Amino acid sequence: NYECGVHPPCSWTNGVCTNSDGSYYCSCTTGLTLGQDGVSCIDINECAQINPPCSWSNGVCMNTNGGFFCSCKVGWTLGQDNASCVDVNECASSNPPCSLISGVCTNTNGSYFCSCNKGWMLSQDNATCVDNYECGVHPPY
User: What separation, in Å, do the N-terminal and C-terminal C-alpha atoms of the chain show?
Assistant: First the structure.
């Protein structure tokens, strides 16, 4: 007698029915656990576990049915392991955020800040350097 045959008693979508001697047992695919009824499959919230799979400090864990995925907060990017978050070096990007003229970009964990070389000051946009006119006279333009 094959209990798992034509009308398997286990969950159709994510269940696995295994015939045993005179009986059967149900199990579930990865990311799911067997319900109290012994036949249905219930999602495991990996993100709520004691040791969640994503980076604690800069990561965001999103539970999905039968799995999860990790993403990172602004200023961080997902590492090769798809779980850890790695600092983005905004200063090394092809479009650096600070002024290219007399500007200095300093990368920090998850962010950056701009500063200016001597004789220049940071404008209100916190990215552009403007002459600070040490002599108190604006040029004639």
Answer: 96
pLDDT (tens digit per residue) in 32-61: 999 999 999 999 999 999 888 998 889 999
Longest CA–CA separation in the chain, Å? 99
Listed in sequence order, the residues at least 6 apart from 84 whose beta carbon sits closer than 8 Å to its beta carbon are: 55, 59, 78
**Residue 20 structure tokens:** 């045993």
What are φ and ψ of residue 91, in 5° steps?
Answer: -70, -25
b/e for 4-20, b at 16 or more Cβ within 10 A? beeebebbeebbebeee
Quickly tell me which residue has 């200095």 as its tokens.
104
